[in-house]
Specification:
The chain is an alpha/beta fold and 213 residues long. The protein has eight helices and five strands. It has one domain: P-loop containing nucleotide triphosphate hydrolases (Rossmann fold), CATH 3.40.50.300. Bound molecules: adenosine-5'-triphosphate (ATP) and magnesium ion (MG).
Length: 213
Amino acid sequence: MLITFEGIDGAGKSTQVTKLKRHLEELGREVMTLREPGGTPVAEQIRELLLESRNDITPVGELLLFAASRAELAQRVILPALESGTDVILDRFFDSTTAYQGYGRGLDLDMLAEINRIASCGLSPDVTFFLDLTPEDALMRKFSEKSLPLAFESEELDRMENSGLDFYRRVRSGYHAIGAENPDRFVTLDALLSPAEIHREIVAKLDALFAKS
Ligand SMILES: Nc1ncnc2c1ncn2[C@@H]1O[C@H](COP(=O)(O)OP(=O)(O)OP(=O)(O)O)[C@@H](O)[C@H]1O
Ligand SMILES: [Mg+2]
Protein backbone atom coordinates (compact mmCIF):
# COMPACT_ATOMS: atom_id res chain seq x y z
CA MET A 1 0.00 0.00 0.00
CA LEU A 2 1.27 3.49 -0.85
CA ILE A 3 0.43 5.97 1.91
CA THR A 4 1.31 9.65 1.67
CA PHE A 5 1.27 12.48 4.21
CA GLU A 6 0.67 16.06 3.21
CA GLY A 7 0.24 19.42 4.92
CA ILE A 8 1.96 22.75 5.35
CA ASP A 9 5.25 22.94 7.24
CA GLY A 10 4.83 22.06 10.89
CA ALA A 11 1.45 20.31 10.45
CA GLY A 12 2.73 17.15 12.13
CA LYS A 13 3.49 14.91 9.14
CA SER A 14 6.78 13.49 10.37
CA THR A 15 5.26 12.84 13.81
CA GLN A 16 2.47 10.76 12.25
CA VAL A 17 4.78 8.97 9.80
CA THR A 18 6.83 7.68 12.73
CA LYS A 19 3.75 6.54 14.66
CA LEU A 20 2.22 4.85 11.65
CA LYS A 21 5.43 3.02 10.75
CA ARG A 22 5.59 1.57 14.26
CA HIS A 23 1.92 0.59 14.16
CA LEU A 24 2.14 -1.19 10.81
CA GLU A 25 5.29 -3.01 11.87
CA GLU A 26 3.49 -4.21 14.99
CA LEU A 27 0.86 -5.66 12.67
CA GLY A 28 3.68 -7.64 11.06
CA ARG A 29 3.81 -5.62 7.85
CA GLU A 30 7.00 -4.64 6.05
CA VAL A 31 7.23 -0.85 6.01
CA MET A 32 9.49 1.61 4.23
CA THR A 33 9.39 5.34 5.00
CA LEU A 34 10.84 7.87 2.59
CA ARG A 35 11.26 11.59 2.32
CA GLU A 36 11.75 13.67 -0.79
CA PRO A 37 13.94 14.82 -2.38
CA GLY A 38 16.46 11.99 -2.06
CA GLY A 39 16.48 8.26 -1.49
CA THR A 40 18.82 7.10 -4.27
CA PRO A 41 22.43 8.17 -4.95
CA VAL A 42 21.38 10.46 -7.80
CA ALA A 43 18.34 11.76 -5.94
CA GLU A 44 20.54 12.57 -2.93
CA GLN A 45 22.82 14.62 -5.19
CA ILE A 46 19.77 16.45 -6.51
CA ARG A 47 18.73 17.03 -2.89
CA GLU A 48 22.10 18.66 -2.15
CA LEU A 49 21.70 20.84 -5.20
CA LEU A 50 18.23 21.94 -4.12
CA LEU A 51 19.21 22.61 -0.54
CA GLU A 52 22.55 24.30 -1.19
CA SER A 53 21.55 26.60 -3.99
CA ARG A 54 17.85 26.91 -3.30
CA ASN A 55 17.88 30.69 -3.63
CA ASP A 56 19.46 30.66 -7.06
CA ILE A 57 17.11 28.19 -8.74
CA THR A 58 14.21 29.44 -10.84
CA PRO A 59 10.73 28.11 -9.97
CA VAL A 60 10.66 25.92 -13.10
CA GLY A 61 14.20 24.70 -12.48
CA GLU A 62 13.25 23.80 -8.94
CA LEU A 63 10.13 22.03 -10.15
CA LEU A 64 12.09 19.91 -12.61
CA LEU A 65 14.79 19.04 -10.10
CA PHE A 66 12.15 17.85 -7.65
CA ALA A 67 10.56 15.89 -10.49
CA ALA A 68 13.90 14.31 -11.46
CA SER A 69 14.51 13.25 -7.87
CA ARG A 70 10.98 11.84 -7.64
CA ALA A 71 11.41 9.89 -10.89
CA GLU A 72 14.56 8.25 -9.53
CA LEU A 73 12.89 7.39 -6.24
CA ALA A 74 9.69 6.11 -7.83
CA GLN A 75 11.42 3.90 -10.42
CA ARG A 76 14.25 2.53 -8.30
CA VAL A 77 12.79 2.37 -4.80
CA ILE A 78 9.02 2.82 -4.47
CA LEU A 79 7.89 0.58 -7.35
CA PRO A 80 10.13 -2.37 -6.39
CA ALA A 81 9.12 -2.05 -2.73
CA LEU A 82 5.41 -2.08 -3.54
CA GLU A 83 5.91 -5.02 -5.89
CA SER A 84 7.54 -6.99 -3.08
CA GLY A 85 4.55 -6.31 -0.82
CA THR A 86 6.18 -3.63 1.33
CA ASP A 87 4.03 -0.73 2.50
CA VAL A 88 5.57 2.60 1.54
CA ILE A 89 4.91 5.73 3.61
CA LEU A 90 5.91 8.99 1.97
CA ASP A 91 6.42 12.24 3.88
CA ARG A 92 5.13 14.38 0.97
CA PHE A 93 4.63 13.30 -2.65
CA PHE A 94 3.29 14.93 -5.80
CA ASP A 95 0.41 16.70 -4.03
CA SER A 96 3.08 18.90 -2.42
CA THR A 97 4.23 19.94 -5.90
CA THR A 98 0.67 20.84 -6.86
CA ALA A 99 0.01 22.70 -3.62
CA TYR A 100 3.34 24.56 -3.30
CA GLN A 101 4.50 25.15 -6.87
CA GLY A 102 1.01 25.30 -8.35
CA TYR A 103 -1.31 27.00 -5.88
CA GLY A 104 1.50 28.62 -3.85
CA ARG A 105 3.83 29.90 -6.58
CA GLY A 106 1.30 30.07 -9.39
CA LEU A 107 2.82 27.65 -11.92
CA ASP A 108 0.38 26.25 -14.47
CA LEU A 109 -1.64 23.42 -12.92
CA ASP A 110 -2.03 21.42 -16.15
CA MET A 111 1.72 21.49 -16.72
CA LEU A 112 2.28 20.36 -13.14
CA ALA A 113 -0.20 17.52 -13.49
CA GLU A 114 1.67 16.25 -16.55
CA ILE A 115 5.09 16.55 -14.90
CA ASN A 116 3.76 14.86 -11.76
CA ARG A 117 2.36 12.02 -13.83
CA ILE A 118 5.67 11.44 -15.62
CA ALA A 119 7.83 11.81 -12.50
CA SER A 120 5.72 9.41 -10.43
CA CYS A 121 6.06 6.56 -12.96
CA GLY A 122 2.30 6.10 -12.91
CA LEU A 123 2.17 5.74 -9.12
CA SER A 124 -0.69 7.27 -7.19
CA PRO A 125 -1.22 6.97 -3.42
CA ASP A 126 -3.80 4.48 -2.15
CA VAL A 127 -4.50 6.96 0.60
CA THR A 128 -3.30 10.48 1.40
CA PHE A 129 -3.55 11.87 4.92
CA PHE A 130 -3.73 15.65 4.84
CA LEU A 131 -3.03 17.29 8.18
CA ASP A 132 -4.96 20.52 8.07
CA LEU A 133 -4.33 23.64 10.13
CA THR A 134 -4.12 27.37 9.49
CA PRO A 135 -0.73 28.91 8.71
CA GLU A 136 -1.19 31.01 11.85
CA ASP A 137 -1.48 27.89 13.99
CA ALA A 138 1.51 26.33 12.23
CA LEU A 139 3.48 29.51 12.88
CA MET A 140 2.56 29.48 16.58
CA ARG A 141 3.74 25.87 16.73
CA LYS A 142 7.08 26.85 15.25
CA PHE A 143 7.44 29.73 17.68
CA SER A 144 6.74 27.50 20.66
CA GLU A 145 9.10 24.88 19.24
CA LYS A 146 11.92 27.40 19.35
CA SER A 147 10.87 28.37 22.88
CA LEU A 148 10.64 32.01 21.93
CA PRO A 149 9.18 34.19 24.65
CA LEU A 150 5.40 34.43 24.47
CA ALA A 151 5.61 38.20 24.12
CA PHE A 152 7.78 37.96 21.04
CA GLU A 153 8.42 41.14 19.15
CA SER A 154 5.41 42.01 17.04
CA GLU A 155 7.86 43.14 14.36
CA GLU A 156 8.98 39.55 14.10
CA LEU A 157 5.44 38.29 13.52
CA ASP A 158 4.89 41.00 10.90
CA ARG A 159 8.00 39.91 9.06
CA MET A 160 6.82 36.30 9.09
CA GLU A 161 3.34 37.38 8.03
CA ASN A 162 4.66 39.39 5.13
CA SER A 163 7.02 36.72 3.87
CA GLY A 164 4.99 33.62 4.47
CA LEU A 165 1.38 33.76 5.56
CA ASP A 166 -0.19 34.61 2.21
CA PHE A 167 1.89 31.95 0.50
CA TYR A 168 0.88 29.32 3.05
CA ARG A 169 -2.78 30.36 2.81
CA ARG A 170 -2.64 29.67 -0.92
CA VAL A 171 -0.90 26.35 -0.32
CA ARG A 172 -3.54 25.35 2.21
CA SER A 173 -6.43 26.21 -0.09
CA GLY A 174 -4.57 24.31 -2.81
CA TYR A 175 -4.67 21.23 -0.62
CA HIS A 176 -8.41 21.77 -0.12
CA ALA A 177 -8.85 21.89 -3.90
CA ILE A 178 -6.79 18.71 -4.36
CA GLY A 179 -8.97 17.02 -1.72
CA ALA A 180 -12.15 18.06 -3.51
CA GLU A 181 -10.81 16.58 -6.75
CA ASN A 182 -9.62 13.33 -5.17
CA PRO A 183 -12.25 12.41 -2.58
CA ASP A 184 -11.55 8.68 -2.99
CA ARG A 185 -7.98 8.83 -1.67
CA PHE A 186 -7.74 12.13 0.22
CA VAL A 187 -8.42 12.11 3.98
CA THR A 188 -8.42 15.49 5.71
CA LEU A 189 -7.54 15.42 9.40
CA ASP A 190 -7.67 18.18 11.99
CA ALA A 191 -3.99 18.79 12.73
CA LEU A 192 -4.87 20.55 15.99
CA LEU A 193 -5.98 17.29 17.59
CA SER A 194 -3.38 15.56 19.74
CA PRO A 195 -0.85 13.32 17.96
CA ALA A 196 -2.49 10.27 19.59
CA GLU A 197 -6.00 11.25 18.40
CA ILE A 198 -4.79 11.88 14.85
CA HIS A 199 -2.99 8.55 14.88
CA ARG A 200 -6.20 6.80 15.98
CA GLU A 201 -8.12 8.31 13.06
CA ILE A 202 -5.40 7.23 10.64
CA VAL A 203 -5.42 3.68 12.00
CA ALA A 204 -9.23 3.53 11.77
CA LYS A 205 -9.13 4.62 8.13
CA LEU A 206 -6.41 2.10 7.27
CA ASP A 207 -8.26 -0.71 9.08
CA ALA A 208 -11.23 0.01 6.82
CA LEU A 209 -8.98 -0.02 3.73
CA PHE A 210 -7.25 -3.26 4.73
CA ALA A 211 -10.65 -4.87 5.33
CA LYS A 212 -11.65 -3.96 1.76
CA SER A 213 -8.47 -5.23 0.10
N1 LIG B 1 -0.91 16.94 16.80
C1 LIG B 1 0.01 17.76 17.29
N2 LIG B 1 -0.30 18.68 18.22
C2 LIG B 1 0.63 19.52 18.71
N3 LIG B 1 1.92 19.54 18.32
C3 LIG B 1 2.29 18.66 17.38
C4 LIG B 1 1.35 17.73 16.81
N4 LIG B 1 2.01 16.98 15.89
C5 LIG B 1 3.29 17.42 15.88
N5 LIG B 1 3.46 18.42 16.78
C6 LIG B 1 4.69 19.20 17.02
O1 LIG B 1 4.74 20.19 15.99
C7 LIG B 1 6.06 20.30 15.46
C8 LIG B 1 6.04 19.96 13.98
O2 LIG B 1 5.71 18.57 13.83
P1 LIG B 1 6.34 17.71 12.63
O3 LIG B 1 7.80 17.91 12.54
O4 LIG B 1 5.81 16.33 12.78
O5 LIG B 1 5.62 18.44 11.42
P2 LIG B 1 5.94 18.32 9.86
O6 LIG B 1 4.62 18.45 9.19
O7 LIG B 1 6.72 17.09 9.59
O8 LIG B 1 6.80 19.61 9.63
P3 LIG B 1 7.81 19.93 8.38
O9 LIG B 1 6.94 20.19 7.19
O10 LIG B 1 8.49 21.17 8.87
O11 LIG B 1 8.70 18.73 8.23
C9 LIG B 1 6.92 19.38 16.31
O12 LIG B 1 7.46 20.14 17.35
C10 LIG B 1 5.94 18.36 16.85
O13 LIG B 1 6.35 17.82 18.08
MG1 LIG C 1 8.59 16.84 8.66
